[in-house]
Each structure stands twice: as structure tokens, then as C-alpha cells.
Amino acid sequence: MKRDVAGIILAGGQSRRMGGGDKSLLPLGSGRVLDHVLSRFGPQMESLVLSANGDPARFARFGLPVLADTVEGFAGPLAGILAGLEWAVASTPCKAIVTAAGDTPFLPLDLVDRLAAAAGKYPGKIAVASSAGRRHPTFALWPTGCRDALRHFLVDEDNRRVSAFVERHGHVEVAFPVLQSAGQPLDPFFNINVPDDLAHAVRLLQSMMS
Q1: Phi then psi for 75, rounded to 5 degrees?
Q2: For the chain, what is the radius of gyration of the CA atoms?
Q3: pLDDT tens per residue across span 172-199
Q4: CA dist 59 to 29, 55, 62, 117, Å?
């Protein structure tokens, strides 16, 4: 368990393609999507919070602090990342945060360790996860020293593209393997965007338990 890195679960999306509401609170198996994210991500670090706007009471059962964006207007994942960085500086001794999307129930169990190891070789850079040749910028280690530049990028430049900030700041990519589940490929960063994805997640979970 990492003590010098804080975890931020990005659960603040508006979920338009799922018809609204919180994707992380959709039922999956015996619990919710967020239960699966927490079971895999939570043990990887000591400090963990949720990033989400609106009434935090809907997440009360998970027993985690809930951070609202510090930038107005539902500015997307970068706003949640910024809120996480500012919280980590104010409330923890951590020098970096690792973010994970709240709709990704099969994320890697070694995500934090591998990102932290890569970041240690390139101080000050963002360490970003990738799989199958695709970068996943919401799964990344962010040094707290980038928070002022991120606020300027998001507020003053009004740029909400996560990949654009990653490119500008400088980053190192960390490749994670595609796994196999019941003979089918399983990208550990598979996320739930539309109803068919939720049905696929149910099938994947069943195959893992059989």
C-alpha cells in the first residue's frame, strides 16, 4: 500500500450515453460498479477520496470523502483531477495523486505501484496508463507540483482536454497487458459508457466467478 500517493476516483461524469445519473452507482454483480472499482483500487494506497459533484449523500454507503469541483461548469475530468491535487496538498503529505475512473470495474491491481515506479524515473512528469496501444489519461499519476499549471490550463485557457494537458506537461506511458477471461480478451481499462457495456461487464464478471 502506497503512503506517499493519494487516490482519486473520478465519479463526476454526467453519463449522458447511459441516460444520465451516476454510472458508478449502476448495479453490477452483488453490488454497484463503484464497489468493484473500490475493491481493486482502494487497497493500493492509504488515502482515497471520490471526485463528484451534486449531493454527496448518494455515496454515503462507501464511507469516503467526496470532493466537488473547484472549477464551475462541469468542466470534466480535469476539474476532478485539479480538485484532487488541491485536496492532496491541503490535507495529506502526499506528493502525487493517482486517478482512476469510477466506471472501470476491472482496473489493474498493480496500477499505483507501476505508475509510481515509472514516475520515480522521470520526476515531475505525469505517468499515464495505456493498453492495446491506447492511452488512458484518466488513469494517471499526477505530481502535485502541476496543479497551478493545470488550473491555468483549465480556467484561463478554458481547455478541458485531458490528453492536451498531459502532452503539454510531459509524460511517461506505462503499458498494461490485455488479459484473458474465459478465453475472451479483457482490457483492464474497459469502461461502462452505454447499456451494452454494462451487459458486457455482467458477462465478464460471471466468467471470472465461474
Answers
A1: -80, 10
A2: 16
A3: 999 999 988 777 889 999 999 999 999 9
A4: 18, 8, 6, 31
- Model pLDDT for residues 66-97, shown as the tens digit of each residue: 999 999 888 899 999 999 999 999 999 999 99
How many CA atoms lie less than 13 Å away from 117 in the CB half-sphere?
A: 8
Residue 195: all three cell numbers together: 447499456
124: DSSP letter:
T
As a whole number of angstroms, the distance between CA 190 and CA 204 comes to 11
pTM over 0.90: yes
| Rounded-to-integer distance, Cα 38 and Cα 33, Å | 9
Return all residues near 98 (Cβ < 8 A) that are at least 6 apart. 5, 6, 7, 8, 44, 45, 111, 112, 115, 116, 139, 140, 141, 142
Q: Among 144, 11, 143, 5, which residue's Cα sits nearest to residue 66? A: 11
Please give the Cα distance from 158 to 151 (Å, whole number).
Answer: 9
- What is the DSSP annotation of 30-60? TEEHHHHHHHHHGGGEEEEEEE--S-GGGGG
CA distance 94 to 103: 25
Chain centroid offset of residue 71 CA: 18
